[in-house]
Amino acid sequence: xxxxxxxxxxxxxxxxxxxxxxxxxxxxxxxxxxxxxxxxxxxxxxxxxxxxxxxxxxxxxxxxxxxxxxxxxxxxxxxxxxxxxxxxxxxxxxxxxxxxxxxxxxxxxxxxxxxxxxxxxxxxxxxxxxxxxxxxxxxxxxxxxxxxxxxxxxxx
Amino acid sequence: xxxxxxxxxxxxxxxxxxxxxxxxxxxxxxxxxxxxxxxxxxxxxxxxxxxxxxxxxxxxxxxxxxxxxxxxxxxxxxxxxxxxxxxxxxxxxxxxxxxxxxxxxxxxxxxxxxxxxxxxxxxxxxxxxxxxxxxxxxxxxxxxxxxxxxxxxxxxxxxxxxxxxxxxxxxxxxxxxxxxxxxxxxxxxxxxxxxxxxxxxxxxxxxxxxxxxxxxxxxxxxxxxxxxxxxxxxxxxxxxxxxxxxxxxxxxxxxxxxxxxxxxxxxxxxxxxxxxxxxxxxxxxxxxxxxxxxxxxxxxxxxxxxxxxxxxxxxxxxxxxxxxxxxxxxxxxxxxxxxxxxxxxxxxxxxxxxxxxxxxxxxxxxxxxxxxxxxxxxxxxxxxxxxxxxxxxxxxxxxxxxxxxxxxxxxxxxxxxxxxxxxxxxxxxxxxxxxxxxxxxxxxxxxxxxxxxxxxxxxxxxxxxxxxxxxxxxxxxxxxxxxxxxxxxxxxxxxxxxxxxxxxxxx
Lengths: 156, 507
Hints:
The complex is a heterodimer of chains A (156) and B (507). By secondary structure, chain A is mainly α. Chain A has five helices and no strands. Chain A has helices at residues 3-23, 37-59, 74-97, 100-114, 119-140. The radius of gyration of chain A is 24 Å and the shape is flat. The N and C termini of chain A lie far apart (58 Å). Helices cover 74% and strands 1% of the residues of chain B. Chain B contains 23 helices and two strands. Chain B has helices at 2-12, 15-33, 39-50, 55-72, 74-80, 92-100, 104-137, 142-159, 164-179, 204-222, 244-250, 252-267, 272-287, 299-315, 317-323, 329-340, 349-352, 354-380, 382-386, 390-409, 412-430, 436-458, 470-506; strands at residues 181-182, 189-190. Chain B has a two-stranded antiparallel ribbon with strand order 1-2. Chain B is globular and about 70 Å long. The interface between A and B is large, with 72 and 58 residues.
C-alpha cells in the first residue's frame, strides 16, 4: 500500500471520530444555525477527503511511495522523532518540577549533542542561553518562568 | 488624510517604534540569511515578544523582520545555492550561476535593489489602494464578508501546490481547529473532549510557533546525522553597488513588471511572495529577448523575481488590513497580532485608528528604505552569519519557542500545543501537505462560520439570499468559478498521468 492509503485511512478515521463527537453537540438553539452544523460539515468533508485519498492511493501505479523522502531514511526519521518526543516529555514533565533553567540546560545540551555541536561551544551555550532567556523574560517582560529547584538562589 | 499622515509621522518617529523597527530588521536579516529558517518562522517567533509591546511598535517589528528576512534569504541563495527562505528558491540557480561566473556582488546587489524597489512599490500600492477599498468595503454586509472569506479560502486551495485535495485537507484541519472551544453564538462546547483548557479554544500563537518554528527543529533533529555542514561562501571583493546602474538601466521594465506582478499576486489570499517570485521569473524568461541566457547567470530574471517577492509581501497586507483576510502566512500571523492589540482589521480600522494605520504604512516605507544600507551590511557579514553552526542555533530557537508559547497565557498547556503542532507540521510537510492553508483556515474559519450564521438569520434560512445583493452575487460567482477551476485542474492533473502510464506500458 502507498503512503496515500495510510494517510487516507488516518484522515477518514480522524474525521469519523470528530463526526461522532459533533453529533453529541446540543443542536437546538433559539435562533440561527445549530452549533453542531459547522463541525459536522467539516468533519464529514474530512471523511470524504480521506476516502478520496484512499482511492487515489489504490489507483496510483507509479513507483512505490512509502512516505519517506529521499533525503531521509526511515532510521533517521525514527531516531529524530524519538529525540523530539523525549525532549517534549522532559519539557512538559520538568517545567514546574525542576524549573526553567535546569530544563533549558538539558534541552540545549541534548539537542546540541545530538546535532554534533563542539563540546566547548555547546557547554557555553547550554549555560549562557538559559540564564539569558530567564533574565530577559522574567526581568524585562515579566513572564513568570518557573524557578523550580533553583528557587533558593534565583531572585523573585 | 494630511492630518493622519502628520500624526502618523509623530507616532512612528519616536524611540520605541524606531527601536522595534531596527530590532525587527536585524532579527529578520539574521533569520532570513540562515538556510532552513523562513520569514514566517521569524514572524512567528516574534509574536510572543509583541505581546508586551504597544500596537505600533509590535506591527513595525513584524513588518521590518518579514521584509528583511525575505531579502536576506537571497544571500545564501546567491553565495551557496541554498535559498535562505522559500521565496528565494525561484531564482537561486540564476543567482548562483552569476556567483560561479565570479560576480557574486552583481547577483547580491541586483537582488537587494530589486527587493527594496519591489517593497516600496508594494507599500505605495498598499497606501493608495487600501483606503479606497476600505471606503468601498464599509458598505459590505455579512453576505459579502461570507463570500470574501470563502473566496480567500478558495484561493488558498487554488494556488497551494499541484494537489488541490491536499491543500483542502490542510484547510479543513485548520477550520476544524478553529471550532474547538465554546461556540460564541450558543455557548455550547465543541471538540473539547473534557479538557478544560480547550474551552477557550486553541490559541493561534502556539500553533503558529509549532507549525513554523518547531517543525524546522524536528526536521533538523531528523537530518542531524545526514546533514552536511554548509560550504564556505566565496569572498566578496568588489563593491556591491558599483556595477548595478547598467543592469537597472537595461532592465527597468522588468523591475516595474516584477513589482506589479508581485503586488497583484500578493493581494490574492494564500499566494504570497513565493508564488510571485516563481511567476515573475517565468514571465521574465518568456518575455525576454534573450531567453536562452536564463539559467546561465543573467541578472534579467533576478530583477523581475527579486522585485516581485518583496512586492508580494506588501501586497498581502491589502486584504489583511481592509477585509481581515490574510494574503499569506505572515499576514495571517500579523492579523492575530492586530486582534491581540485591539486593532481589529477591517474597513472601520481606517476611520477609528487612522493615525496608527498610517504610521504602519510609513513603517513599510521606512523598512524598505533601510533595507538597502542594512542589506549591504548583511552581505558584508554574510560569511560570519552563515558560519553559525545549526547545532547551536536550533536549541536556542527551541528555547525561544518554548518560552514564547509559555508567555502567552503563562501555562504549560501552550507549550504542549506548540510541541504537538511542531510534530504535525513536520509530518504534514513530509507527506507533501502544505501548512499555509491550515493557518489560513484557523484564522478565517471563525469568520466564515460567524458571517454564515448572521447571513442565514438575515435571510430567514433562504440560501438564494446569498446571491441577491450585487456585490455578493459577484463575489459568490467568482468563488464558484474558482471551485470550477480547482475541479478542472484536478481532472487535468490526473489526465497526463494516465497518458504517461500508457506510454510507458507500450515501451
